[in-house]
Amino acid sequence: MLSRRSALLAAPALLLAAESMANSGIFNDRIVFGQAAPLDGPAAALGTGMRDGILAAFNEANKAGGIHGRKVELIARDDGYEPVRSAAVTRQLITEDNVFALIGPVGTPTSQAAQPIAAEAGVPFIGPFTGAEFLRDIKLANVINLRASYFQETEEMVERLTRDLGASRIAILFQDDAFGRAGLAGVQRALTKRNMALVAEGTYERNTIAVRGAALAIQRGRPDAVIMVGAYRPCAEFIKTARQLRLNATFVNISFVGSDALAQELGAAGAGVVVTQVVPFPGDENLAVVKRYRAALAAAVPNATPGFVSLEGYLVGRLTLAALAKAANPPTRQSLLGTIRANGFDIDGMPLSFSADKNQGSDKVWLTVIQADGSFRAVERLSGAQG
To answer: Concatenated DSSP letters for 191-244?
Structure first.
């Protein structure tokens, strides 16, 4: 038993240890995570979808007693899908909210602004909703990616367009920022591999739907396919405008678009539009992970409709929770990152593989096509898929 003098000497050290834990988002009864994402505006469906999926995973874990007796919490803050604002929100989450880790951030330009801030503070940057290649750099010690990269998605797009549909004239619409240019680089890389080149390019400004000029520029290239690297509202506006201009082409969107929001924006004009995906089909309850996700989402966010974005958020949440369960108790930021990098994970049948040389868990890309009623159909090939 400690003497009174020993207890008095130990008390400051214990207090400092408790304060240190609290300052890194770890408390005796909870672990606090932060998310900087668009929760309002034209990209809001992406941020809220990721948030809802993470909350579904966290709520599921909390009902089962949490992680080593600690509940998991999420503080989500709106960054408007703007880099300067995302940087400010990220600093707030780290310095004022004292979060343990950042989880489910949304976007390439916003991640470019936020990730260095998190790295400087030693804060994990987990499951960003972007396939940007720079985040796959193994030198970024605080980054963990779940999804396939944009290079992998665009390679699949070009492969399917050329092999399945015989497309020879491919154009691109892209958001005029780091996100769009990341997709552009992937498309150019895939075309160069096949001794092809883009027949036309069109751009639009982030957080706008000013796409008519891009549609006219692309129309002049007479493409038989248009690859689209953008968010759901401008992409929907482009497709509607292109159809009015009688541009007879296959439209293929990258996963970041926000599939369900895109289908809703398009309405009847969406039939035959292709979207590549980096998570399984959220309507396939034959998959154990999907069945569990749908139940967890209904319990945590009863008014949410299951979809690709929230499924990705759920998988990011499940990966983080699985790593916390394996990490030291109490966890540290480094033990969380080290546990992920040193292990493979099986999220109810969806394998995620990491290593010291690989910070991306999944390489899988799926194909989906919007149907006339706005629903999605998963396909293996594009031949005969449209319409």
So the answer is: HHHTT---SEEEEE-TT----HHHHHHHHHT--SEEEEES-HHHHHHHHHHHHH
Measure the CA–CA gap between 375 and 370, rounded to whole angstroms.
Answer: 6
Residues in the chain, total: 387
Distance, CA of 171 to CA of 372 (rounded, Å):
24
The distance of Cα 101 from the centroid of its chain, to the nearest Å, equals: 16
Report pLDDT digits (tens) over 75-120: 999 999 999 999 999 999 999 999 999 999 999 999 999 999 999 9
Residue 190's alpha-carbon distances to 63, 201, 318, in angstroms, are 46, 16, 32
The Cβ of residue 186 has, within 10 Å, a number of other Cβ atoms equal to: 26
| Overall pTM > 0.85 | yes
| C-alpha atoms less than 13 angstroms from C-alpha of 273 in its C-beta half-sphere | 33
Asked if 57 and 314 touch (Cβ cutoff 8 Å), the reply is yes
Contact status, residue 151 vs residue 227, Cβ threshold 8 Å? no
